[in-house]
Amino acid sequence: MTLWTASEAADATGGEARGDWSVTGVSIDTRTIAPGDLFVALKAARDGHDFVAQALEKGAAAALVSHIPEGVAPDAPLLLVDDVQTALEALGRASRARSQARVVAVTGSVGKTSTKEMLASMLGTQGRTHASAASYNNHWGVPLTLARMPRDTQFAVIEIGMNHPGEIAPLARQARPHVIMVTTVAAAHLEAFDSIAGIAREKASIAEGLEPRGAAILNADIDEAEILRAAADAAGARIVSFGRRAEEYRLLKVDVESDTTHAVAEVNGRQVTFDLQSGGAHFAMNALGALAVCAAMGADEARSIEALGHWTPYRGRGQRERITLAGGAIELIDDSYNANPASLKSSLSVLAAAQATRRVAILGDMKELGLSAEAMHAEFANHEEMTHIDRVHCIGPLMRALHAALARDRRGEWTETSAEMAARLEDLIEPGDIVLVKGSLSMDLARVVDALRKMGKGAEPDA
């Protein structure tokens, strides 16, 4: 199906179309580009203009550029604009303006991507659904997601993130959601904010993009709940709360086994149960909020609950795998994509509840926590979850504070880098272990996960 014609893209961006082309997709990466895509030459770590010729050779139908790159013919299929980032945003806004889809935007300090994936699964059983890829939630990820939205989309799920103040509201105004959801507010990116209340105000600014008569699905259990409610109320939103203290979607009970979660909730005065094929009370909380979103989007509750039962975590965000070793097997909890204190606590709870010969955590630094970072790492030595974990291995200068604070009987190895830890794994991991791997993205814990997989004779994600 045609996504953009040359004339449509030119009208949307105010650019000059060279040639009469049409595209079926939008890409920013020549490594994954598909024939028929529009290649967007963004300037990030490297200038995308350097890859335009390669993109066209790989079958790109056209390229969005601010000048004709070296090695590209003047009559090549191009869309010439003054600024590529600005043009991508304009393309995203035009896509949103022409769409009849019901749109939800999700933000939060923890659980954005998992909740987005839940919603994509739940809504995907009830209509043509478009969702952000991976964690495409920033200044280029949101407009790219919008620009990629097929014309016949019925439901769209947009993830919105931030690192600094003032980032969320402009992205929300591009997405123009009918429903917004804030999963939670917690200590993340504290380097850029004066307090958690400041983080809450930034998350609450997602309401600035809400469509008239829209709905706000908000976590009732956090200390900053009133900040979220005030912003939603100022936007004229219909407010729906979820959580253990919520009025509309109240979580009554959660039973977690090693790889399943059973939840009981009260929804507007009636009892509802749902199951997840992954262990974790935090997943149950996000799923409850997702059910509230689906109702606000006009989706059927029973079908939403059924789809939840088939959802499994995204790779790097709690996905579980069994890895066969000589003499037995280990279970891996791959939560290596990112970390902050709230998400680490949730992950340690999952590990603590697991059934295994030994429970082992391999933890990397949590970044962007400001001046209290070392103390926040060390505090985990005294958390209740730690009493159920047999061995903790630590990676990075901040995690050295936790390593020093741990009781001797559970203190494992410390290394400066993930590469060093990966090289030691064969001496640290035994058949019968369940192993949690978690840390901030820049710590490259994926290297540890890959090394664990290579120890095995094969691994299959748990269904």
Automatic annotation (TrEMBL):
Chain ranges of the Mur ligase C-terminal domain: 327-440
Domain Mur ligase central: 106-294
Keyword Magnesium: no
Cellular localization per UniProt: Cytoplasm
Keyword Transmembrane helix: no
Pathway note: Cell wall biogenesis; peptidoglycan biosynthesis
EC number(s) per entry: 6.3.2.10
Family matches, as InterPro entries: Mur-like_cat_sf, Mur_ligase_C, Mur_ligase_C_dom_sf, Mur_ligase_cen, Mur_ligase_N, MurCDEF_CellWall_CoF430Synth, MurE/MurF_N, UDP-N-AcMur_synth
Enzyme class: ligase
Chief location bin: cytoplasm
SUPFAM superfamilies for this protein: MurD-like peptide ligases, catalytic domain (SSF53623), MurD-like peptide ligases, peptide-binding domain (SSF53244), MurE/MurF N-terminal domain (SSF63418)
Catalytic activity: D-alanyl-D-alanine + UDP-N-acetyl-alpha-D-muramoyl-L-alanyl-gamma-D-glutamyl-meso-2,6-diaminopimelate + ATP = UDP-N-acetyl-alpha-D-muramoyl-L-alanyl-gamma-D-glutamyl-meso-2,6-diaminopimeloyl-D-alanyl-D-alanine + ADP + phosphate + H(+)
Keyword list, A-Z: ATP-binding, Cell cycle, Cell division, Cell shape, Cell wall biogenesis/degradation, Cytoplasm, Ligase, Nucleotide-binding, Peptidoglycan synthesis
HAMAP family given in the database record: MurF (MF_02019)
Described purpose of this protein according to its UniProt entry: Involved in cell wall formation. Catalyzes the final step in the synthesis of UDP-N-acetylmuramoyl-pentapeptide, the precursor of murein.
Stored PANTHER family: UDP-N-ACETYLMURAMOYL-TRIPEPTIDE--D-ALANYL-D-ALANINE LIGASE
Name recorded for this polypeptide: UDP-N-acetylmuramoyl-tripeptide--D-alanyl-D-alanine ligase
Gene: murF
